[in-house]
Amino acid sequence: MDTAAKALLGHHDFTTFRSINCQSKSPIKTLDAISVTRTGDNIEIRLAARSFMHRQVRSIAGSLKFVGEGKWPVAAMAEVLTARDRSQCGAVAPAAGLYLTRVDYPDDSGILGPGLHQSHGPENQPADQKAGQNIKDDNADGIDPGCGQGGTGQKRGEPQNEQD
Q1: Over 90: is that where the pLDDT of 138 sits?
Q2: pTM
Q3: Which domains are present in the chain?
């Protein structure tokens, strides 16, 4: 699965992994990092990018699951990526288990407030700042609505339904 995932690294047209409900202006994204590790029965997929389209991460996870189950060969990930066809995507993984673990802002973004550092993850913040202080609205920096950074594109507090 990790070898198959590496085919997604870099600047690509991710149409295959894009929800039909995604409002992003472009399916062209850059995936900076991806890794798949297994510990016992748990499989962890970690991705890093400036932004993700609606359901992109879940679509990638579901497709990688097909590779892990032997339904697809390792080379299939590169093939479905270049197909630019949503019908070639594997099943969309459920939202349960999807976590945003860290958000990085450039030092000159103006987002950083007093006491906050460039990397914002639970391991990097004082306990009194873990509640999300100084978090900027997705739309304020030109990120497409519905295609938020690091996950499903849903705003905090929105209910998730089974179709998401």
Answers
A1: no
A2: 0.68
A3: 2-88 (3.30.70.660), 103-141 (no CATH)
